[in-house]
Amino acid sequence: MYKKLLISLLLLVLVVLSSANVVDRVSSNQLDRAFTRAVSVFAIARGLNGLISVVQGTEVYATPAGVGVNFALGQIVDPMNDMVERFSWVMLMSSVSLGVQEIVLYLGQTQPVKLIFALSALFLMLLLWVPKLWHAQSFNFVFKFLVVFLFLRFAVPMIVLVNQSIYAYALEPRYQEAKAALELSSNQIEGIVSEVQTNKEKQTEVQERSFIETFNEKLDYLNIKKHYQNLNKKFKDQLQNLEKKFDHAIAYILTLITIFIVESILLPLLVLWAFIKLFRGFLQSDMAQFVEKKL
Q1: Which residues have CB under 8 Å from 282's CB, separation 6+?
Q2: Which terminus in the chain has less CB density within 10 A, N or C?
Q3: How far apart are CA 3 and CA 13, in angstroms?
Q4: CA separation (Å) from 266 to 79, 152, 200, 261?
């Protein structure tokens, strides 16, 4: 008797939850937050990509400083450029995964799914409580049918809730730290790139003035040369500083790549696998025999 009461109570709770959309709203809000995180981090990556383009454009004007400086620019930019490109792919996969979860979540909220689920639960309770309707094979068939719709109705919301709970407990502190550090690095890189451009303009101005004054034989050659060498040294120092900032940014991007892969791909697949194993166990069970032992 108590088994029938327990099963009936559980079915009623599931039908109420299905109709009330409580779990769906919470899951949808969690997915929206995940999308917001992905968009905000991707915006930082796009900003870095823009800075990389600026540095690559500056390479054209670096020729007067010597071939070695040109090579240094390429050496600095290429690793960061590759990392941003890979990060873009990760963010694309992450966004696709979140989009698929959003679509399946929406499909589970549709009225036909809710109606079929509620009718199946009602019919199962009738089989359970009306002796004349009791039939073991029919009960098992309806139960397994209900399990399938239970999976369609609640699997994705529960996957989202479990996934986001794990994220909040284990990943969010590292995400916040890496994002804040990447934003700081991006701002610092932007300032250094601005200084590099200003310095290159000064170098070009000195060279042009040197050529004109030499042509007019009014050049203080030693002063101009010394000034140019100072600018060149400053330029190289700026490039070294830029390289360090890029290395720091790459480290933070690697951390964020790991977090987004775990959050939006690995964890959902792992939780989905666990739910499939759980529901498969219910599908393979003989619930009629379980109930009949106490009838």
Answers
A1: 143, 144, 147
A2: N
A3: 15
A4: 26, 20, 47, 6
Q: Which domain holds residue 148?
A: 2-292
Are 187 and 287 a contacting pair, CB within 8 Å? no
Distances (CA, A) of 208 to 97, 150, 202: 55, 77, 10
Which amino acid type is present at position 132?
Answer: K
Instruction: Record the pTM.
Output: 0.74
Do 203 and 228 contact (CB within 8 A), yes or no?
A: yes
CB atoms within 10 A of CB 144: 15
pLDDT for 180-192, tens place per residue?
A: 888 888 888 878 7
Q: How many domains does the structure of the chain reveal? A: 1
Categorize the per-residue pLDDT at 108 as very low, low, confident or very high, splitting at 50, 70 and 90. confident
Q: Please give the C-alpha separations between residue 3 and each of 86, 287, 292, in angstroms, as whole numbers.
A: 54, 11, 10
